[in-house]
TrEMBL record:
Descriptive protein name: 3-beta hydroxysteroid dehydrogenase/isomerase domain-containing protein
Family: Belongs to the 3-beta-HSD family.
Native source species: Discostella pseudostelligera
Top-level taxon: Eukaryota
SUPFAM superfamilies tied to this protein: NAD(P)-binding Rossmann-fold domains (SSF51735)
Amino acid sequence: MTANDNASPPIAPASSHLQRKTALEGQYPPVPSICVVTGGTGFVGNRLVEMLVERGAQKVISFDVVPPPADAWDHPNIEWRVGDITDKAAVDELLSVPGIGCVWHNAAAVGPFHPKPLYYKVNYEGTLNIIESAKKHGINKIVFSSSPSTRFTGEDVDGLREDEMPKLPLKRYMQTYAETKAMADMEISKVCTDEFMTVSVAPHQVYGPRDNLFLPNLLEAAMSGALRIFGNGYNRICFTHVDNYCHGLIIAERALYPDSPALGKFYIVTDGHTHPNGEQYLIFWKILDEAVIAMGFTSLWSKMKLPTLLLMFLAIICDFIGKLLGITVKLNKFNVTVLTMHRWFDIQNAEKDLGFQPIIGFREGWDETKEWFKENWLPKQARSANVIGIASSTQQKIDIQDMSSKKVR
Ligand SMILES: NC(=O)c1ccc[n+]([C@@H]2O[C@H](COP(=O)([O-])OP(=O)(O)OC[C@H]3O[C@@H](n4cnc5c(N)ncnc54)[C@H](O)[C@@H]3O)[C@@H](O)[C@H]2O)c1
């Protein structure tokens, strides 16, 4: 891939049509010349690396335990460094590069599928390493990828702003992932000053081309015929297109200046008012069903719904069996809760303090995502999915992450 001339910005070759169009037609503020993205080969991180280069970064260092994917952008401004944030020395070496304008700390053990100690090690201790090293090397900006689940209690979240959600620390977290992301979030906020500026930005339910966790797992279950609507199917959820999330993360760096209202704060960015009917939510099972039908599978709405109480009962049994056999079972208490509760936010704080607006509208983003899965995901599927296992692409990544962190002492 050659660097583009001045007339057209460089565009990541793996971008979808919509991502390309949005990158070319949008007017975006400048980005730091030298950027670091931890977790840069993940779903979000990879796109973040690409968008930073598209917006003019001269050097973006991706730092991830998982090597870059086959379609990773081979661009002279990108360094794909393989490394582990739980390895203090490696983090120190990473952040000793002179002139780093901002660290986007995005690496995390994500999802419910890792062994518990790994969440603490990666999400909490890894974040401490990033903070300590950034301070040591005089880097004064960190944008942290947080999660709304840090503030979930299991109660419905039906259109709340961040400041209306429970304050950290919570008495009890719904999963270790959420707990350790919350621990990291609190550290990120605690260290924030006018000289060492930090902010947390969270998405909700990221989707888009190249997603290898959310949609593949649900579509695999739908393909096997096992997926049913949980509860009455009318729970309200908000989504965040991967480009909207990365845009939020990128512009959050611009909001880091002395006395900024964003300093040390937590924001959620979503597809906002581009959700159906100008609301800030969609009906989860209706929208998911669009993807199920687009793949040629039977509509979930033509099948029997599973009552929440029955699901909870089964999930408790599955959690017990999973623990006993040391396997990951998709039907668990956490999944039943999040797939039946309302989970959507009012993003007015991010609009006001970060100047955030979605750059890709939900309808066009979702339609393209369905197309992308039909063309790129569907042909690769063997008809062997079940409710016990998790998507094979997800499992491969998990194995590398788990193995790598075991090596670090
Ligand atoms: N996808 C979502 O819906 C969602 C929702 C809320 C928050 N987030 C946050 O967004 C960020 C990115 O998530 P994602 O969806 O891209 O997940 P992902 O799993 O695709 O990306 C995370 C990346 O971090 C890397 N990583 C894990 N352990 C590491 C280590 N020890 N050292 C270096 N790298 C390591 C992984 O290899 C992976 O590439 C995470 O911080 C996550 O908590 C995502």
